[in-house]
Design a protein that fits this description.
The protein is of the alpha+beta class. It has one domain: PPM-type phosphatase domain (Phosphatase 2c, domain 1, 4-Layer Sandwich). A hairpin with a 2-residue loop joins strand 4 and strand 5. The longest helix has 30 residues.
């Protein structure tokens, strides 16, 4: 399930939601991505959408090149795999900028993406936002990357930042029938303990329970929408918020 909610700050300024998220299945693989458009970028909502769709397209085209092995073996392959997918994404953004008659930086956004298989997860991240994973064998949630914060407040790396490919972070871990949650930084302060970047378990538990217990995608998406648009949450964060939650469970008719 995935949903993007516009932040109250953007509503007050008459700005669009600059977040975007999506997922798809590709054979036995579950693919997902979320992006947060840069507030300083003129067309960041367009960039976020293109970044998510393009990275999922690139991953889907190459997915069978990422063969299963030990985590160490897969980690090396995944660096090249995600690097090539990221290059394809940048080419798409360059073409879009030319068609729109704008600069590449006008499409700036952060990006998180993952691939889940029955027994492993591979992920990449550029910029801030967060991604957590919990295997069916684990009791706690694991943060895959610390959000990439710059030297100054609200500063981070965007996919359009010069040399962004060098800041691309990749992670692979064994994970039996994993639960994965990826979100933009509008939810950081309520989902992650900023002192030590540890996931706040009570935040993620209800989403995992929702995926296991609610029978239809419509019911699950309504649950997520209600949460992300709630006054209680908006009182804690005025930024756009996107959350993508997936559960890899072959016994479930729908996994996200």
């Amino acid at each position: 399930m995935v949903y993007s909610a516009i932040g109250t700050r953007h509503q007050q300024r008459g700005q669009p939601c600059q977040d975007y998220g999506s997922y798809r299945t590709e054979g036995v693989y579950l693919l997902g991505a979320v992006a947060d458009g840069a507030g300083s970028a003129k067309h960041s909502e367009v960039g976020a959408r293109i970044a998510v769709d393009s990275i999922l397209d690139a991953i889907a085209l190459q997915i069978h090149d990422l063969e299963s092995g030990t985590c160490e073996e897969m980690a090396e392959v995944a660096k090249t795999f995600f690097g090539q997918a990221f290059d394809a994404l940048l080419n798409t953004l360059h073409r879009e900028a030319e068609e729109m008659g704008c600069s590449l930086k006008d499409l700036g956004c952060t990006l998180l993406a993952f691939i889940a298989a029955p027994d492993w997860v591979a992920a990449m991240q550029v910029g801030d936002g967060f991604m957590v994973v919990r295997s069916s064998e684990e009791e706690t949630y694991r943060l895959l990357f610390e959000p990439d914060k710059g030297e100054f407040i609200n500063e981070t790396i965007f996919v359009t930042t010069e040399g962004a490919s060098e800041s691309l972070r990749v992670y692979v871990q064994s994970s039996d029938r994993p639960f994965i949650c990826a979100a933009t930084d509008g939810l950081e302060r309520v989902a992650v303990r900023l002192q030590d970047w540890s996931p706040h378990g009570p935040f993620f538990g209800p989403f995992e329970a929702c995926l296991r217990q609610l029978p239809t995608p419509a019911e699950r998406n309504l649950y997520l929408q209600t949460f992300l648009e709630s006054e209680r949450l908006n009182a804690k964060t005025d930024d756009d918020k996107t959350l993508l939650a997936c559960l890899y469970d072959l016994e479930l008719p729908e996994s996200s």
